[in-house]
Design a protein that fits this description.
alpha/beta, 13 helices, globular, five-stranded parallel beta sheet
Length: 386
């Protein structure tokens, strides 16, 4: 367990009092200002990139991250109108098949000094080798497959715990809180979903009485529902994303099953409730190595609500932290890719979600996993899983 980091006003002010560098907004834009250094005397011809899904079935999760990153950049720029940082978007649609070529576009744009992302594990596996080869730092706020940190990549970092912590925590909740004796484990065959489900299955051991694999974009889950019924399961764990999870839960309820559904962080989005229907979604348990946004440090929660007229959603605070690290690097004059990699490796400052510090493999030094529950049509914190 880690203490919740609370940033006081002096630290927030210090975070905003940074010297910025600039470009232009949008996925197809190029950095503005040429080689201008503005009034700061620093190179303004750099950009921060966002790499993840902004369209497609899992776009909500990517949008949440982008909003958090953009909030950090907007606050930064508010203090430094002479030399602006802009966010360049690389929309992967969450598709690993597109990630490699999209990564090359990020690499080829020499104004991109660092990336927030990739958002998902599958696209990370495809894109991160190119970033490593080019020396382009990538800080993911959401990709949780443990294997990503075991490739020797020098440019890979993440600001939240991986599935080696989330999986056992989910299993512990199933065993000690739900007290489930018979569990069916289902995954969507994705790099993320299968990886997380496998860890849960291994941790639960003999409690697992059945398994199944579905596919992304699948709409008919009747064979899976039949397996759950036949196994007499009192809990189901699903590893995958919210679109399919919502349909699975709806079809479970339509079939008369009262089995509790437990899901990972890829399902923790309002899109799940939309897909399942509010009544069917009720009682679903969601695990996530992400902090409840209202527990974030400083003024993040209020600032996000003011900026977007909505509460921060999954990974928004983590996206803010990832961008803040890169902004701190730019403020310190780290405007070459190698300098930025070295800066991130040595980073050790409080963020809004935790103390931001990385081990040699790029993993965060502090980790926590929370359980959330769908209640009254909303996703609310249930408890931190110790």
């Amino acid at each position: 367990m880690r203490p919740i980091v609370k940033l006081g006003a002096p630290l927030v002010a210090a975070a905003l009092a940074l010297t910025a560098c600039g470009g232009t907004t949008g996925g197809s834009s190029s950095a503005g200002g040429g080689s201008s250094s503005g009034g700061s005397g620093k190179n303004c011809n750099v950009q921060v990139g966002f790499f993840g899904a902004l369209t497609g079935d899992a776009a909500n999760l990517g949008q949440n991250i982008k909003n958090g990153a953009k909030l950090a950049i907007d606050q930064y720029n508010a203090q430094h109108s002479d030399c602006q940082v802009k966010l360049k978007e690389f929309d992967s649609q969450g598709d690993p098949a597109q990630a490699s070529s999209l990564a090359q576009k990020a690499v080829d744009d020499k104004t991109v000094i660092g990336l927030v992302g990739p958002a998902f594990s599958g696209e990370s596996k495809a894109a991160d080798p190119k970033f490593n080869e080019a020396g382009l730092v990538a800080i993911t706020p959401s990709a949780t497959n443990p294997a990503l940190a075991k490739n020797g990549w020098k440019t890979f970092f993440r600001v939240l715990g991986n599935d080696a912590s989330q999986g056992p925590a989910a299993a512990k909740y199933i065993q000690t809180v739900l007290k489930a004796k018979k569990v069916v484990v289902v995954d969507d065959a994705s790099e993320y979903g299968k990886g997380l489900a496998d860890i849960v299955k291994q941790t639960l051991g003999s409690s697992v009485v059945g398994t199944d694999t579905v596919q992304q974009k699948q709409t008919d889950f009747s064979p899976t529902v039949t397996k759950i019924r036949s196994a007499g399961a009192d809990a189901v764990f699903y590893g995958g994303y919210y679109a399919e999870a919502g349909l699975l839960k709806k079809q479970m309820v339509d079939a008369g099953l009262k089995t509790t559904l437990v899901v990972g962080d890829g399902v923790k989005d309002e899109g799940y409730i939309t897909a399942a229907g509010e009544k069917a979604a009720e009682g679903t348990i969601m695990t996530c190595p992400c902090l409840p946004p209202d527990k974030a440090g400083g003024t993040f929660y209020a600032d996000y609500k003011k900026a977007y007229n909505a509460e921060p959603a999954t990974y928004g605070a983590e996206g803010f932290d990832a961008a803040k690290i890169l902004l701190d690097g730019i403020a310190a004059g780290k405007t070459t890719r190698q300098d930025m990699v070295d800066f991130v490796k040595a980073y050790d400052k409080p963020g809004v979600t935790k103390q931001l510090k990385f081990d040699p493999s790029g993993e965060p030094s502090q980790i926590s996993v929370w359980a959330y529950k769908v209640e009254g049509g909303k996703i609310v914190p249930d408890q931190e899983i110790k």
